[in-house]
Specification:
The protein is mainly beta. It is built from 6 helices and 41 strands. The strands form 7 sheets. It has a 22-stranded antiparallel β-barrel. A hairpin with a 2-residue loop joins strand 26 and strand 27.
């Protein structure tokens, strides 16, 4: 299945069979996209460049209607087919992205200019990838440049609201050693769609709030990759990064009943990984990977603030003072993973994948967790067999056995099959998902004030693990420049964890929240609880048509329905609810035209539209339906005599100037500021590179070498 656009580079007169992309996420083994046995979607480098997307969120929301985002200070609240990012595993080159912070992920670490392509596998992937993969897996494959003696790139983008994006790459190869250094910087001044506060959350109707729809922020990241290949059989690779971010939040002290921001937020992330691969022969190999990363965030106080939390002796302190320019750690999450994996060709057209994994999670939250810290560990072994005994059938089956520190042993099996008939592919599968409660869900406590109401969020040490059963069936047809697919799915979840309003009696003794629970109605305690059950079901469809070598049309549609049963402790009954963030209907449509006028200049035009119906929430109102249109232009200016390649992108986002003026504190269908403009300049220099059709596919900058 292809997400929104055909994988092949639409405007090159190259036979399509030469442009089959190799994907690895679905089975952990390489397959061409048209023959991958598990349903896979892909976004290519060319699609990313044509779309003019400024961020990873823009790429997915513009090109894949199954995704939704709702930006906030803690990160991007992402959903995939009705389930939030707690259930979505995001990987960069096969390594987990650490950043589960308050139920959100800071996706600013992902530089779109460094992406080669994105592979998306929907549904439970726990058999292959373990916890966090109950809704799907997103694997971001980065650009490499391993075969270049010298590589230099500078990309600068500017847009409305001081939206600045900077990317630089420096790569070189010396003998058996290859190095790639990357840098990115992102900044926006943020924007304010309305000055109105939600009247139900404030004591007064406020029309002059300083709160912004999206706050100002600046982030930066530097990354380093080293590859050493001593022989044709053995290779080593190490990657590392440092990431910093600050979110500037306006102080709103004029109205004591309004949400008052007395601190900015800072992120300090870092990570390192080591990996090696040894090829036993042409078909068999063994890999060993070890990685560590941390995601830490701090409050940087801008005014005197009284905080509550645990003191060093483990006692809950009602009011602890912090003063301007002080910083205090809120949460430091660290994760270490070691994985040994082998792939072996067996007789009778069987391909066996076998592996073992150890994962250790550590949480340091001095004010949020009793004793200041908590941890969790999981060990696992897994097996997977792919049988391709005939040209028309592939059957893949696997199982992972997990032992968790708190919840013992669990097994997560899967099975899938693909039938090939001429240009038709039929895929079906079933998989079991598993996710243990995180240390934050079990023991994290904090207060959050929104207007006149204060929410007290509580962990729950009695949580049960979550499990799921995912089934899907789809059909895909492709011939020449035409491709169409339809997939139906159903995901049954048991013991789904979510925040639930609970009685005041659930508040722990001795906390500031207990003192506030005086019956005034201004305190709402919320606790992580297991739902009795939950269900998501839907249909995804896509169609692309390359009419000529210059013109391509396409679109995608997603229908979704969700239901969950949660126990109402206040009224002693089960309630049926819609999972937060669900929209029944979402879709996108696009048209692109590219034409090469001469060796020095190629022009590209793109028109993109995306729409969503109402997004449903249990608290604080629903998000409004919307549609947004975007115009993009790309200008490849060729290569000068010094070997420099030039490219310019410019466009208009949200042509019809749609924006929501929903009061602060309520949900948005989209946080767009209305019509915006952008322009990007890219300059690239490479030396010692040999041109081939594979390079042409990977990006329009590359095909001008």
């Amino acid at each position: 299945m292809i997400c929104s656009a055909p994988l092949a580079a639409q405007n090159l007169d190259i036979p399509s069979e030469q442009l089959d992309e190799v994907v690895v996420t679905a089975t952990g083994t390489p397959h061409t996209l048209k023959n991958v046995p598990v349903q896979t979607e892909i976004i290519s480098r060319r699609q990313i460049e044509q779309s003019g997307a400024a961020s990873f969120e823009d790429i997915l929301s513009q090109l894949c209607p199954g995704f939704d985002f709702n930006a906030g200070d803690m990160g991007s609240q992402m959903t995939l087919n009705g389930l939030g990012n707690n259930y979505i595993l995001i990987m960069i080159d096969g390594k987990r992205l650490n950043g589960d912070n308050g139920g959100e992920n800071d996706l600013g670490r992902i530089d779109p200019h460094n992406i080669d392509h994105i592979e998306i596998v929907k549904g439970a992937g726990s058999a292959l990838y373990g916890s966090d993969a109950m809704a799907g897996v997103i694997n971001i494959i980065t650009r490499r440049h391993d075969d270049q003696a010298l590589y230099l790139e500078n990309t600068t983008r500017g847009g409305s609201y001081m939206d600045l994006r900077q990317h630089n790459s420096i790569g070189f190869s010396i003998g058996k050693l290859t190095s790639l250094t990357t840098f990115q910087l992102q900044h926006t001044d943020g924007w304010q769609n309305t000055t109105e506060e939600d009247p139900e959350q404030t004591e007064y109707h406020i029309y002059d709030s300083r709160n912004k729809t999206v706050n100002m922020y600046t982030n930066g990241q530097i990354g380093q990759r080293l590859i050493y290949i001593p022989s044709g059989k053995l290779s080593f690779e190490t990657d590392g990064y440092l990431y910093r971010k600050r979110i500037f939040r306006p102080t709103n002290g004029r109205h004591p009943s309004c949400d008052v921001n007395t601190f900015d937020m800072k992120y300090r992330d870092a990570g390192i990984s080591l990996g090696s691969e040894y090829k036993l022969n042409e078909s068999d190999l063994i890999t060993l990977d070890v990685s560590w990363d941390r995601h830490a965030y701090y409050y940087h106080y801008t005014d005197t603030t009284l905080e509550e939390g645990y003191d060093p002796n483990g006692n809950y302190t009602p009011y602890y003072p912090f003063f301007p320019d002080q910083e205090h750690l809120q949460s430091d999450q660290q994760r270490t993973i070691a994985e040994l994996k082998g792939i072996f060709a067996l007789p009778w057209d069987n391909l066996l994948s076998a592996g073992a994994e150890y994962r250790y999670d550590y949480l340091n939250a001095p004010m949020r967790v009793k004793d200041g810290r908590d941890d969790d560990w999981t060990t696992a072994v897994y097996l997977q067999d792919e049988f391709t005994g005939t040209r028309w059938l592939n059957v893949t089956a696997g199982i992972r056995v997990i032992e968790n520190k708190a919840f013992g042993f669990h097994a997560t099996p899967k099975i899938s099959a693909m039938f090939k008939v001429a240009d038709l592919r039929i895929r079906t599968g079933w998989s079991r998902g598993f996710k243990s409660p995180t240390p934050k869900e079990q023991g994290y406590h904090y207060l959050r004030t929104m207007g006149a109401t204060t929410f007290f969020y509580m962990g729950n040490p009695d949580l049960k693990p979550q499990t799921s059963d995912y089934i899907s069936a789809g059909v895909e047809f492709s011939r020449g420049g035409f491709s169409a697919s339809v997939t139906g799915y159903r995901n049954e979840l048991d013991n789904m964890i979510t925040l639930v309003n609970v009685p005041l009696s659930q508040i722990p003794a001795g906390t500031a929240a207990e003192y506030m629970g005086d019956g005034s109605g201004q305190l709402t305690p919320r606790m992580y609880m297991n739902m009795e059950d939950a269900r998501t079901m839907g249909v995804d469809a896509s169609l692309t048509w390359r009419i000529t070598s210059d013109i391509t049309l396409g679109g995608a549609y997603s229908w979704l329905d969700t239901k969950a049963h949660v126990y109402d402790t206040k009224h002693d009954r089960l309630n049926e609810v819609t999972i937060d963030g669900m929209a029944h209907h979402k879709g996108n449509i696009y048209g692109t035209w590219q034409h090469r006028f001469n060796d020095a200049y190629r022009l590209g035009l793109g028109l993109y539209g995306r729409a969503s119906s109402t997004r449903y929430y249990q608290n604080n109102g629903n998000g409004k339906p919307y549609q947004i249109w975007k115009l993009t232009t790309t200008h490849n200016l060729g290569q000068d005599k010094n070997g420099l390649v030039w490219r310019v992108e410019a466009g208009i986002d949200n042509i019809l100037d749609y924006k929501e003026t929903t009061p602060h504190g309520l949900h948005y269908g989209t946080t767009t500021p209305g019509r915006t403009f952008y322009c990007t300049m890219s300059i690239k220099f490479s030396k010692g590179r040999k041109m081939n059709t594979r390079d042409v596919e990977k990006g329009s900058l590359d095909d001008d070498d």
